[in-house]
């Protein structure tokens, strides 16, 4: 049985909840994320086209439960659609390990 531990991400999280904000995401950004992230709602797959740095991607269902973790996702890579995912939080590479995030945890943003 997976643990349903509540986790808080102690970063400044920007919300991308409009078509244009979701479309742009972090593309073309020059500097890496530092203690910040982007929460894309709704979203169940991502691409790293036109990205300049790696990220960690945390896919959540509607209840905020982590359904998939993708660590150190490099530019020009893709994550196929995850049917149970409703949103994704894009974080600095290494955040999943640093924050101890696990599949099944509940995220409080």
UniProtKB/TrEMBL annotation:
Any one Pfam family match given in the protein's UniProt record, by short name: DUF192
Signal peptide span: none
Superkingdom of this protein's organism: Bacteria
Protein's name in the database: DUF192 domain-containing protein
Originating species: Neobacillus cucumis
